[in-house]
Write a sequence for this structure.
């Protein structure tokens, strides 16, 4: 069963041109991310998941709308603390992801990375990153590699509003422009860097406003609207592929859970999340849009929901049953050779 | 192999040239590695701040990349490019500048392989100048290799002569792990016999620079030549020292050191790095732990005092370990009695 979004190709930035199969893929990806995160939220509460977990629920349209334009082989993404959604949208398999979060040998990183470091380089996914602002410089490198190889690949750095204030991000934006790289910077402004409001921590009105200072286009989109993200990302990625240089996209939305699991979120307004879930939600909105326009039926979408639910159930069951790494695993995988 | 006398600087340039000829995935990046980007004069006016990469820009079009002064940006880019099939050699100019880009080395490059379950290779080489002697003061003179030796996932190379620097740099570039390559800035004009042909020196194999029976002297980087001076003076006093150059601090060839200590029963370690938690303390601890029964005297460490590197020549000369310091330490261990 397909569990993630297959590539839609970079020549389809017009959302109305998406085929029925592509729309179903988009929906499956967003639903997979939501179901994955909701389930991790539940499992974390039971105490079975170790460590720090940061959930992406509410932000699905961003990873999905951007990665819909990316190939697994030539295009790369760097992610954030909140990386599960980016992984799923880039095609990382869900079962090893869940096993990784449980710290099992069957995990994407054999249980050595965990939620904050899930990666699959074979799919061009350079990892969730435990360092705020860790990813953007790396993407300058993957974009440089694509440029030197001439394979048309694009490097995409997802980063949050918190990382938008880091020097590494500023350096990467500047370097990408100076080297004219096929890079795309996606600032996911979910309103909070940890517990601090981005309206306080970001000195500009918008993160996208900073693009002008680095000589690149800066665009703002409604992050609850898949089609808006899809079209804006498509234009930036096409420009990068064609040698037109880097762009910055600011995706504005909010997250449904705390900074980390266990966060009591006392810094948030009382009805903020409830309002977003009820009135802004990207999956609801997508569903309403495609059914009202007659492009997909509720039955088709319900079938995806059921398939995703089953996949997540299997992923959790298998992750729980999988073995934990043992002493022999402690010392492997550190040097290629010594 | 026929040899001829060339400088440490020329040996590095030759290794870079030969590796770039051998493998088109090798690229160079750094501040002014071509030197003169965007100006009115020569495109490769500098060839690196001390002229080490001079001439490469013209020989390898598109593969010698000047960067803005943006260490996080381009060290991160080198790391990212390494995950995508290139073999970048990034010049950090002065290792002291690791202070502004340590995250990309410590939390990204060093961790990828283990954190991603063995599924990543990051063949990046970071070249940097280290060490005192040029009156470059506190922020341009440090010997920071202990900092990197402390980090699993990195390999740390400290070449002691023109012959060593050429073979070890070629090996670093071919190695699939991230390598921090320490060039002593006071050695660029030191000459020595170096083969014209390309060759590599394997990591983790210490070099017995001089055989001797009375005291084992382990010396790092430029301290090898200082120990050789001391050896000549000690010869006059009838004391024969065995000088060991570890070549690589990670991996460290402890066996060669232990074999020597088994014969001599006495150990002096000479290290230009600050005295706390440096390589001298590390090697001393390991030898005492592994070979206490072989020791006829306490281990002595010759390191600078625990202060920043001073500017004034009168002070810096006192700071850097001298041949006389080594002579004194050797005499202390040979004359020691309970």
């Amino acid at each position: 069963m397909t569990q993630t979004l297959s590539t839609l190709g970079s020549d389809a930035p017009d959302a109305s041109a998406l085929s029925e199969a592509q729309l179903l893929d988009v929906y499956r990806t967003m639903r997979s991310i939501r179901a994955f995160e909701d389930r991790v939220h539940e499992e974390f509460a039971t105490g079975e998941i170790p460590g720090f977990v940061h959930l992406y629920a509410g932000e699905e349209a961003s990873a999905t709308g951007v990665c819909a334009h990316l190939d697994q082989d030539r295009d790369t993404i760097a992610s954030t603390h909140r990386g599960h959604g980016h992984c799923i949208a880039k095609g990382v398999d869900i079962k090893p992801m869940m096993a990784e979060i449980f710290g099992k040998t069957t995990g994407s990183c054999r249980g050595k990375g965990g939620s904050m470091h899930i990666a699959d380089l074979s799919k061009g996914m350079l990892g969730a990153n435990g360092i705020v602002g860790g990813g953007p410089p790396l993407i300058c490198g993957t974009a440089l590699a694509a440029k030197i190889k001439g394979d048309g690949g694009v490097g995409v750095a997802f980063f949050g509003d918190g990382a938008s204030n880091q020097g590494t991000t500023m350096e990467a934006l500047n370097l990408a422009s100076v080297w004219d790289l096929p890079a795309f910077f996606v600032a996911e402004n979910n309103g909070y860097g940890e517990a601090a409001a981005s309206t306080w921590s970001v000195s500009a009105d918008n993160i996208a406003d900073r693009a002008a200072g680095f000589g690149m286009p800066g665009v703002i989109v409604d992050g609850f609207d898949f089609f808006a993200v899809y079209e804006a990302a498509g234009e930036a990625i096409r420009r990068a592929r064609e040698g037109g240089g880097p762009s910055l996209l600011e995706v504005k939305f909010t997250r449904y859970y705390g900074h980390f699991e266990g966060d009591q979120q006392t810094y948030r307004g009382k009805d903020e999340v409830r309002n977003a879930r009820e009135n802004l939600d990207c999956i609801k909105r997508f569903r309403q849009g495609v059914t009202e326009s007659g492009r997909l039926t509720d039955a088709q979408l319900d079938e995806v929901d059921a398939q995703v639910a089953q996949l997540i159930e299997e992923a959790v069951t298998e992750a729980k049953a999988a073995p934990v790494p043992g002493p022999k695993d402690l010392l492997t995988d550190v040097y290629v050779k010594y | 192999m026929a040899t001829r006398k060339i400088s440490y600087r020329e040996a590095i340039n030759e290794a870079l040239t030969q590796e770039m000829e051998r493998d088109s995935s090798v690229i160079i990046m750094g501040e002014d590695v071509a030197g003169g980007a965007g100006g009115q004069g020569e495109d490769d006016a500098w060839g690196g701040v001390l002229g080490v990469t001079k001439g490469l820009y013209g020989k390898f079009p598109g593969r010698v990349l000047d960067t803005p002064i943006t260490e996080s940006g381009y060290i991160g880019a080198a790391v990212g490019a390494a995950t995508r099939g290139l073999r970048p050699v990034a010049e950090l100019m002065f290792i002291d500048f690791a202070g502004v880009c340590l995250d990309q080395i410590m939390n990204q490059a060093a961790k990828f392989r283990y954190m991603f379950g063995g599924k990543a290779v990051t063949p990046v080489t970071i070249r940097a100048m280290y060490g005192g002697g040029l009156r470059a003061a506190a922020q341009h003179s440090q010997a920071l290799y202990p900092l990197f030796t402390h980090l699993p996932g990195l390999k740390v190379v400290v070449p002691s002569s023109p012959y060593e620097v050429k073979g070890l740099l070629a090996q670093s570039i071919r190695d699939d792990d991230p390598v921090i390559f320490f060039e002593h800035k006071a050695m660029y004009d030191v000459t020595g016999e170096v083969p014209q042909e390309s060759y590599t020196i394997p990591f983790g194999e210490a070099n017995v620079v001089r055989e001797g029976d009375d005291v084992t002297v382990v010396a790092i980087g430029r301290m090898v030549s200082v120990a050789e001076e001391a050896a000549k003076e000690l010869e006059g006093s009838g004391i024969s020292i065995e000088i060991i150059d570890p070549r690589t601090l990670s991996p460290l060839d402890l066996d060669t050191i232990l074999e020597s200590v088994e014969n001599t029963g006495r150990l002096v370690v000479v290290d230009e790095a600050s005295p706390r938690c440096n390589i001298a303390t590390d090697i001393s601890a390991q030898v005492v732990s592994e070979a206490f029964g072989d020791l006829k005297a306490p281990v002595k460490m010759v390191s600078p005092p625990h202060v920043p590197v001073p500017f004034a020549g009168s002070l810096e000369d006192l700071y850097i370990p001298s041949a006389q310091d080594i002579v004194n330490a050797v005499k202390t261990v040979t004359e020691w009695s309970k």
In short: Chain B has two domains: 3-195, 207-335. The domain at 3-195 of chain B is CATH 3.40.50.970 (Rossmann fold). Chain B touches chain A through 47 residues (CB under 8 Å).
